[in-house]
Structure formats: structure tokens, C-alpha cells
Amino acid sequence: MLTEAEPELQLVVDCVRTAIVTDASPELPALDDTPDWDRVVELARYHGVVQLLYQGLEPIARESGDEFTVPESVLTRLNSTVQGKRMRNLAFTTELQEIIESFETRGVRAVPFKGPTLSAAAYDDATVREYNDLDLLVHPEDITVAADILEERGYEWRGGTPRLDDAALLGGPVTKAIVHEYEMRGPEFDVELRWRVGDAERPFTTPFSELWDRRDTVAVGGQPLPALAQPDRLLVLAFHGTKHRWYLLKWLCDFVAALESTEADWSHVLARARETGVQRNLLLGAALARTVFGYALPTPILDRLRTDDRVTELTEAVVESLAAGTPQAPTQFKAAQFHLAASDSATALVPLLLLHSSLHPTYSEYQFCPLPGPLHPLYYVIWPLRLLLEVPQWQRQRSEEPLDEAT
């Protein structure tokens, strides 16, 4: 538990635990005084767990009797917020169903891996998770058709520059992709098309083809949709949370809910995690689940945790950060540092350095001079040229800036 956190955050954690952990007994929060309910709601909003807070408050208040009461105004406020989020999520669900149907008609291989699908798979309810867009993993060969379908549905690529034949953006055998996802903005919703989990610098090594071959099916809003297999879902969530240094509770909630819904040979899950290079990510997520929510871990996971002292250190660092209440997103340097510490091998430093965006052409080069796919290697010539052309402009802007007055 977050024993060093403010009482309001401890209350949020208690409610969330009650909502997501099967057979969790509601516990009266250790409060010396009436909680600051505005702060409770603020923390739940920040961590993306308002709906889970609402679900957990009712049983805690019921079990506590007169010792702990929730003001009616707070319940009304939360209920209104939750109903609004549920209605929005239902609209997301309908849109996802229609997109997947269009993809299947055109032969596009796609797996929704967050949003309504994760909510349905992990929480058994497509509307419980809080999400702002739809995330889909798409086979690299099908990205162009997938983007075309979305444009036919009224979506626009956020880049604002012509997509041409997409090959220049996706990279090639000897060149790095300029973008790692397509952000498509629609009239009502945003959709992200990804062809891999993670990015070139911090890769999740399992290719899409394997994830596709092992895919599962989940009922989302009454319609069966493709989804990641349970072990793959767990590993992707562990990877994603670690990538962001687990600074929001919602990622840990997703991981715990996925643990709850996973029926697997845990020795097999650990073996797959080792093959993928995310075993320490998995162990870190498990250690946080136990520390923050008191979650009872499977024996094979516990046995492996006892042999990894670094996971203990990383867990303590994350818990200290979470206890701050509203920790900020880590800087790029801090995120990279944490990624290396949580990696299974020191070789993770190699792609982090060699494929860093500062050493390769970026979207700025594509904006500067859109090229078709076969000419993508020319960006390594255009890249230094663009930088040279921008230097005089940057120097001129600096010279025109007013000098700070002495104080």
C-alpha cells in the first residue's frame, strides 16, 4: 500500500483495489479526519481511475457503516461523470466495431489492443477503462489500406503533409521509420494505427505476425473482436507501464485486471517474457501489484521476484513517485534511464543509442521534402541539409530577441 501517501490518495487506492481485485474485502481507509473530497476526485481524474473509484466507494461505505460516509453531493457528482464517460465509451465501442468490420472486409489484419477491447477483456466491461482514442496494431503490409479506409470514413492524418505511398514514412530494410504510428483524427474520435508495440529505440521484440497468429477473440459490446492472447496482453501492459515509469495508477490497474483475467501456465508466461526481453518489466508490474494493491501473486512469479534485487529497487522508486499524488511524466532522459534499468539485458542500450531520433531523419525531413518510398534513403542526405538551412534562421531569431533587462 502507499502508506506514505496523503490520505486522499490512499482512499483512491483502497477503492480501486476493491473494484478490480476479485473477492477483495472492502477496508475502512485510515483517515484521521473527513477526506478532502475535491482532492479525492482530482487524484482519481489525474490517474484515470474515476470509474473505478466510484465502483469501490459504494462497498467501502456500506461495510463501514456510520464510521465512513460519502456525501451525497460527491456521489451525485461522480455518478454524473461516470455516466458521461460510459456513454462516450459506448460510442467508441460502436466506432471500433465498424472500423474492424471495414478492415475485415478489405483483408486488413488488425488487433485492437487498448480501449474498449482491453476494457472488455480485463474488466469484463467495454466501458470501464478511461481512454481518449482507439489503438490498433496493424500488419505492416496492411497499414496503407487501413489508413485509406479511415480516410474514407472521414479521418485525416494529423501530420498535415501528403501520405504519398507511405513507404517513406514506414522506413525500409536499411532505414529507420520516420513515424512509429499514424495518428488519424476523425470528426468525433481519434485512432492510432501502429505496426509494432513500442518503437525502434525501445522495441517490444515480438513481431505482429506472431501476435496475430496467437490472437484471441473477445466480446466487445456484444460483438466478437480480435484481441491479444492473454499472455501477450499481460506482457504488452507490463512493457507499456514500464515505458512510462508507471507514473499513473490506471496502467497498474490495467495490469492487475489482466492478471485477474489471465488463466495460464505462469512458467510458460515467464518463458515467453524472457524470449521477448520483458521479463523484468513483467516482474516489476507484479511487484507493484503486490505492493500497491496487496495482490496475491502466483507462486512462479513470487519465486522469480525473490531472485531479482533490481526489481525491488525499481518498485521502491515507482512507489515513492506514486506517493507524491500527481507525479509528472518522466523526462526523456529519465524514461530512458528507467527503461535501461528495467531491461533484461545491457544490450538494450544499443538500439537506444544507435536508433535515437537525434541520429536519424525525422518527420521534419518529410515535411521539408516529401519523397516516395524508393527514395527514402535520400533523407539521410536531406537531413543535414535541412539542419544547415535552419541554422541561419535560428541565429537570426536569436539576434532579434530583446536582451533581458538587468535587475
Give the spatial strand order of the biggest sheet. Answer: 1-2-5-4-3
Residue share in helix: 40-55%
Q: Compute the average pLDDT.
A: 89
- CATH top level class name of one domain: Alpha Beta
SSE topology string: HHHHEHEHEHEEHEEHHHHHHHHHH
Would you tell me which CATH topology of one domain applies?
Beta Polymerase, domain 2
Just name the CATH architecture of one domain. Answer: 2-Layer Sandwich
Kindly report how far apart the N and C termini lie.
49 Å
The assigned structural class equals: alpha+beta
Strand content: 5-15%
| Largest beta-sheet details | 5 strands, mixed
Low-confidence runs: 394-407
Q: What gross morphology would you assign?
A: globular
Give me the number of helical elements. Answer: 18
Extended strand count:
7
Topology, element by element:
Blueprint: H1 7-20, H2 37-46, H3 50-64, H4 72-105, E1 110-112, H5 115-123, E2 134-138, H6 143-152, E3 156-157, H7 167-170, E4 182-185, E5 190-194, H8 208-213, E6 216-220, E7 223-227, H9 230-243, H10 249-261, H11 266-276, H12 279-293, H13 299-305, H14 309-322, H15 332-341, H16 349-354, H17 363-368, H18 379-400
Parallel strand pairs: 2-5
Antiparallel strand pairs: 1-2, 3-4, 4-5, 6-7
